[in-house]
Amino acid sequence: MTRLTDPADLADLVELLRSRGMLREVVGATDGVAVGEVQFDSRDVGAGDVFVAVPGAERDGHAYCAAAVERGAAALIVERPLPDITISQLVVSSSRSALALAAAWRYGFPSRDLGVIGITGTDGKTTTSYLVRGMLLECGYPAGLITTIEAICGGVSKGYSGHTTPEAPVVQADLRAMVEAGDRYAIVESTSHGLALERVAEVAYDIAVLTNITHEHLDLHGTYDAYVAAKRSLFEGLAVSDSNPDKGLGKLAVVNARDKEGASFAAAARSAGARVLTYSVGDDVTADIVATDVIDTPTGVAFFVRTARWEADVELHLAGSFNAHNALAAIGVGEALGLDPAAMRRGLAGVAHVTGRMQPVDAGQPFDVYVDFAHTPGALAATIAALAPVAA
Question: Is 132 left (phi over 0), alpha (psi -120 to 50) or beta?
């Protein structure tokens, strides 16, 4: 990340933390203290930075406060006051919550100036994110992207962050870069890690999208119910998401009507005051957006779509009939935003591949090779089923 050049007043952060009910105690003076970046890794601390000590599963950030001070930190955010530390200490109830708030504050709450689309689910998040971006670009709306593959700000890829969802300072820095680059929208792949660990806690979401829910990441969440709750928090959070009314967007949700958790996610969104659109492949489920006649083609997949506004054939240049579900989720976003239907279809067709997602490899071999990220039972079954006709 490019370092911020204009220092901020630590006293302002103190008051913000206090207003949110996070601040428990202040140790040391804060008046007149200028701060630079907000850091969660002591190795990244520079002169004047705020270091946030986050307890983790394997390491406790409090053990690295002395190192942060040696590197020039101007203040610490901690969950317990540390003796023998002479710089300002802001003692908070939760370092993770404070990290998200401090990062958003330091970057000027950039998500309030973007139309933010959060996409969650077990499978299909990344592909759906790229399909949504393809639609928005074709409709004339510049859009940034934060996914497990890369971050794109102002049309320029920043590469892989090293995390399924980056930590809050990285997320907020990317959102600020999008604003400054002229992006109108931000598509944020919102993983269960990112939601449960509050990496996206201060992102002002406008649209929440559910792809599907199956078992995954129980190593972090412990139980299936906790995993689902982490995903559902994206929809519940629409009630408190602090958006700028100048965006001209209401709160919206797009939900897979076929998923067994879909009804609870839709109910959470409605309780948050959001308008809900549902989607489904097949006529046997009532939904706002429906796809029928799904067929594999030599270049991808084709199907017929019906919405309240339009009906037409849709073609994707992505292999695998399961991508019809991802396309419907993207179309749901387009319907929520009232995008031009013809441009939406062109945008979907323009996504030629998504790295590591049913990605064909052509090295001149006399057989077909695909690289796919599928690692859950449902995703593996769908991938095998999609490739079976090719293998035959």
Answer: alpha
User: Is 33's pLDDT higher than 90?
Assistant: yes
Residue corresponding to tokens 């970057």: 107
Confidence label for 76 from pLDDT (cuts 50, 70 and 90): very high
Mind listing the pLDDT tens digit for each residue in 315-342?
Answer: 999 988 889 999 999 999 999 999 999 9
Q: Are 296 and 303 in contact (CB under 8 A)?
A: no
203, two tokens: 């992102």
Q: What is the dihedral of CA 142, 254, 316, 121, to 10 degrees?
A: 100
d(CA 54, CA 97): 10
69 to 25, 88, 286: CA distances (angstroms): 19, 10, 59
For residue 207, what pLDDT is reported?
A: 97
Give the mean pLDDT of 239-247. Answer: 64
Q: How many residues does the chain have?
A: 392
Arithmetic mean of pLDDT, 10-33: 96
Extract the tokens encoding 229: 């709750």
Q: How many Å apart are CA 164 and CA 129, to the nearest integer?
A: 14
Backbone angles phi, psi at 336, to 5 degrees: -60, -35
Q: Give strand pairing partners of 300.
A: 297
Mean pLDDT of 356-373: 65
Q: What is the DSSP string of 196-241?
A: HTTTTTT---SEEEE----S--HHHHSSHHHHHHHHHHHHHGGGT-
CA–CA gap between residue 96 and residue 90 (Å, rounded)? 13
3-state secondary structure of 63: helix
pTM exceeding the 0.90 threshold for the entire prediction:
no
Q: Which tokens is 94 given?
A: 């939760």
- Distance between CA 364 and CA 354 in Å, rounded? 21
Helix (H) or strand (E) holding 193: helix 192-196
Q: Tell me which residue of 347, 345, 293, 352 sits closest to 321, measured CA to CA.
A: 293
The CB-side HSE value for 41 (13 A sphere, CA atoms) comes to: 7
